[in-house]
Specification:
The protein has 63 residues and is an all-alpha fold. It has one domain. The protein contains 3 helices and no strands. It has helices at residues 3-8, 11-34, 41-62. The longest helix has 24 residues, at 11-34.
């Protein structure tokens, strides 16, 4: 997910998207504990997307 896309989202959409990504991260990490994932880089990508969402949400809150 690119920062340009995130900046265009409303506050409600940011919260909703972060919640979805956190659920996906939880599911993938659970699956990875049971058996190795084929694409483990997906975990890192989701974490970075969550960080981007939170950073931009904080920027909007300060402004």
């Amino acid at each position: 997910m690119k920062t340009e896309e995130i900046r265009k989202m409303s506050d409600e959409d940011l919260i909703k998207k972060e919640k979805e990504l956190r659920e996906e991260l939880g599911n993938l990490s659970f699956q990875h504990k049971l058996r190795p994932l084929e694409d483990t880089s997906r975990l890192r990508k989701i974490k970075k997307d969550i960080a981007r969402l939170r950073t931009i949400a904080n920027e909007k809150a300060v402004s």
